[in-house]
Amino acid sequence: MELTSRFNYIDTGYFDSVQSDWIHRKKTTTPPRVCQHYEIELYLSKSGTTFINEVKHDIEQYSLIVCKPGDVRYSVNPFKCYYLYISAEDGIIKDILDSLPHQMQAFNAKIFLDRFFSLLKYPAKHRSEEQPYAELRIVSHVHEIIFRLAENRDFYEKQKFVNVNVSKAITEAKRFIMKNYNRNIQLKDVANHVFLSPNYFHKLFTQVTGVTPHQYIINQKINAAKKMLLESDATITDIIINCGFSSQSYFNAIFKREVKITPNDYRKSMNRFYKT
């Protein structure tokens, strides 16, 4: 299979919407226009918004915007970015560009900044015959940008897949804990249930929920105990058994640590509150 990487270099540059010589600088929103080429932009600050085919894209620092021929776009000022315009009729470059989402966040921003800055030495309108090997340098920089865009796309696709799986794992872990908090479940039991190593699961669960798995289990036990103290005449011994605490001393210590009063005092105070 022949892999072609032909493209036409249209232009590259740095653009600041507040610059004095831009025709639309005093307007809040630029007029809609149809893209004639592939437009690749790296934004340098969190400012502005661009609309592509009526889809809103809020700009963050190091946002990557990729527009394709035929896209209709307009922007809300102010914004500043590096830009690269190229055309590609066929081959791997066109395939990559066509596969890219309209917006990504550059996880390797320094590489993009370096390549765009290097291309600024070779603006299409002012390229000098005295610049040795200019064509080769342009091809090299453009290829690097395209490769990094593909790498960025793959990274985000992987992250989306990972994030979905992480969300499912955490949701299932919570469901498992809610169903089994009255048993003596340990970290490894929950991790095994969602097919993750205990250390990795502990890290993920804590990052997503803000509490450790152990604390989450304790919270469910305490909530169940509070409910039984408030809504039933169950003895402390029954509550300890039903909520999965290993002993009365442990139950009393954990309850007082979390609720700030003893279980008996909690029951008395709540009963007085509801009777008044």
Describe it.
- This protein has nine helices and nine strands.
- By secondary structure, it is α+β, with helices and mostly antiparallel strands.
- The protein folds into two domains: 8-158, Sandwich (Jelly Rolls), CATH 2.60.120.280; 181-276, Homeodomain-like (Arc Repressor Mutant, subunit A, Orthogonal Bundle).
- It has a five-stranded antiparallel β-sheet, with helices on one face. Strands 2-7-4-5 form a four-stranded antiparallel β-sheet, with no helix packed on it.
- The longest helix has 47 residues, at 134-180.
* Number of E strands: 9
Strand order, sheet with most strands = 1-8-3-6-9
* Number of domains as seen in the coordinates: 2
How do the helices and strands follow one another from N- to C-terminus?
Answer: EEEEEEEEHEHHHHHHHH
Note the main sheet. 5 strands, antiparallel
The CATH homologous superfamily of the largest domain is termed: Regulatory protein AraC
CATH domain fold name of the largest domain: Jelly Rolls
* Helix content estimate: 40-55%
Q: Examine the secondary-structure arrangement and name the CATH architecture of the largest domain.
A: Sandwich
